[in-house]
Design a protein that fits this description.
This protein is α/β, with parallel strands linked by helices and 427 residues long. 36% of the residues lie in helices and 22% in strands. It has a 15-stranded mixed sheet, sandwiched between helices. Strands 6-7-8 form a 3-stranded antiparallel sheet, with no helix packed on it. A hairpin with a 2-residue loop joins β6 and β7. α10 packs parallel to α12 and α11 crosses α12.
Amino acid sequence: MTPMTKRIALGCIADDFTGATDLANNLVRAGMRVVQTIGVPQSPLDVNADAVVVALKSRTIPANEAVAQSLDALQWLQSMGAEQIYFKYCSTFDSTPEGNIGPVTEALMQALQTDFTIATPAFPDNKRTVFKGYLFAGDVLLNESGMQNHPLTPMTDPNLVRVMQAQTRHKVGLVDYQVIARGSDAIRARCDELKADGVQVAIVDSLSNDDLVTLGRALKGMPLVTAGSGVAIGLPQNFGITADSTAAQLPAASGLQAIVSGSCSVATNGQVADFIASGRPALALDPLRIASGADVRAEALAWASEHLASGPVLVYSTAEPSAVREIQGRLGVEQAGAMVEQVIAGIARGLVEMGVRQLVVAGGETSGACVQALGIEQMRIGAQIDPGVPWCFASSPVAAEGVHIALKSGNFGTPDFFTKAFARLTA
């Protein structure tokens, strides 16, 4: 393939790998041809694209490291001619009180020499809405949704103005639902009012996809947009791009099928239970056995070799919050998470070496570890499985002909996601 020669319209920086594919998925649905890179590219892209999403693993690392990585990504995207920059974070806005959403936003604003941007994690397709500055997950506030038990970034305050203000020196304001209802001109006027009052970051309400499309029009020409993936559906129109199914075309799928899961979210717990209830083969990993030095990777691959020929298999470390807390208490939060991620990543690589060419990975941190273990540098973005989760296609040193891979955020997907994913790919 020839290196990319066309200047890109939209340059995106995502703070984790599943979030990157979530964003890319929405851009593809709106007609953009999208390439996702794993980290900042060291070489030209393989294909032409309207948008590039640089996937970082920066959500939970120290803020100064997240800032440095994000600025490196910005510099590369600017070298590709990006007309607008999009900083993407999770639709649950999860972070620590110190960041990293606020510090990265500040640094990007400074580098782009802009004194105003917006922030909204709204993604109605996945039941994330913002009303009067409060983030809802379905019918409940964020802090009642299970996110208050997140092992790394528990979210106990649903008020996004307060959450953002705690992370930034910039004054934070609100563009509420009443302004959104009056249209794009009203949004721009409200932003001007906020800027005159010294506000530099505005949380924006959004209750529907129509709200996001309206907001998207208002963001035309804004140097920096910060958001979850939802706003992406309203931006391609600003570059004269409309929905086109050919943007999602990938090579035909083949090979064995497998799932690896390291997420402990409520949604993924349900998906694991649904897969097991269907009678398909599933293997649970024991973090304490991993910590004891047992060769859990080899055991899992030996088990998988007995079942892969009959259909998809699942290897998982998913657990209820109480079990997660017990393991963290014994091993420490960071050690427990990193240890399990690396074992699952090693299993994912081993599965691909055994002939798996259709791989689903559940969990943001787990996805990052697996993609790195597979040596994937760029991914083409395909059709959506569920809101926020597309199939992708990537080259890998352990799969010369390429591998189809889906990176699922822990909170995304219907209960039957694992089985539905393979049916959608081969349909």
